[in-house]
Design brief:
Layout: H1 11-14, H2 20-33, E1 39-44, H3 50-57, E2 60-66, H4 69-82, E3 87-90, E4 102-107, H5 118-131, E5 132-143, H6 145-152, E6 156-160, E7 164-173, E8 178-190, E9 193-204, H7 208-218, E10 221-227, E11 240-246
Parallel strand pairs: 1-2, 1-4, 2-3, 4-5
Antiparallel strand pairs: 5-11, 6-7, 7-8, 8-9, 10-11
Helix pairs in contact: 2-3, 5-7
């Protein structure tokens, strides 16, 4: 699990096609289904805080956790501009610590795919269970093996903009379930001078049965799994899925 470095500087620019408002509406809708319309919510793997800010707008008291100092710096700049009372913590989600429990934990934009070992995934779930209020809800998404293999495949994506450009090489190993992103970034420094950054990111695909097993081993209760942004069941061709789990073990 490597922190974003050079990419953090231009992350929001290249993610401008992500409909964060829609994603926020979907996530907050799921939260309301479980009577969570306010209170403390943890955004685990919050990145530059785009969704964290939007959920704060919806009335939640937000905490953001991320292991990238560069990404959190941008999140803090957004916080300073918006004036929202958001607590940001630089921590690895595999060993995060909070000051108390929260009503819900969310983790989207394939953060859980960055957990490359099943045992570590189970431990993340165990920590989430520990920091949830009794009956609290955990909502997270995952890229699927179908997306890595059939949609992204061994492909190269490139984009050229005035401020920066990137070349994104994608490799998926079906046997290990590991997807490697090789990112070459060219970020404008001054006039016609661009600085090159190279980063490698690794994600792992998990089957729904594996995730259910990890949830059970962590002590949580599996609630539901949906084809992303719908209430439809997970399909063989689902590219992203949302999973809901509930805290188990604490007394009300």
């Amino acid at each position: 699990m490597e922190a974003y470095e050079g990419f953090a500087e231009v992350y929001d620019l290249f993610m401008d096609n992500i409909p964060y408002e829609d994603w926020c509406g979907y996530v907050s809708g799921l939260l309301r289904e479980y009577d969570i319309s306010d209170g403390l919510v943890l955004d685990l793997g919050c990145g530059t805080g785009s969704l964290t800010e939007l959920l704060a707008d919806r009335g939640y008291d937000m905490i953001g956790v991320d292991n990238s100092e560069d990404m959190l710096q941008i999140a803090m700049e957004k916080k300073a501009e918006s004036g929202k009372d958001i607590l940001y913590l630089m921590q690895d989600m595999r060993e995060f610590e909070l000051y108390g429990t929260v009503r819900a934990v969310i983790s989207i934009c394939d953060c859980m795919n960055y957990i490359l070992e099943y045992e570590e995934l189970t431990n993340v779930f165990r920590l989430v269970n520990n920091y949830l209020d009794p009956g609290g809800i955990f909502i997270f998404d995952l890229n699927t093996a179908y997306k890595y293999e059939k949609v992204m495949g061994d492909s190269t994506i490139a984009e050229d903009r005035e401020e920066c450009s990137f070349i994104w090489d994608n490799y998926y190993d079906k046997e290990t379930g590991i997807n490697e992103y090789g990112l070459s970034l060219f970020i404008k420094q001054e006039e016609d001078l661009y600085r090159k950054y190279t980063e490698y990111h690794y994600q792992k695909s998990y089957t729904l049965s594996q995730v259910k097993e990890a949830i059970a081993e962590s002590g949580m209760e599996f609630v539901a799994a949906y084809d992303a942004f719908t209430k439809e069941p997970v399909k063989e061709t689902s590219e992203r899925i949302y999973i809901i789990a509930r805290e188990h073990g604490k007394e009300l």
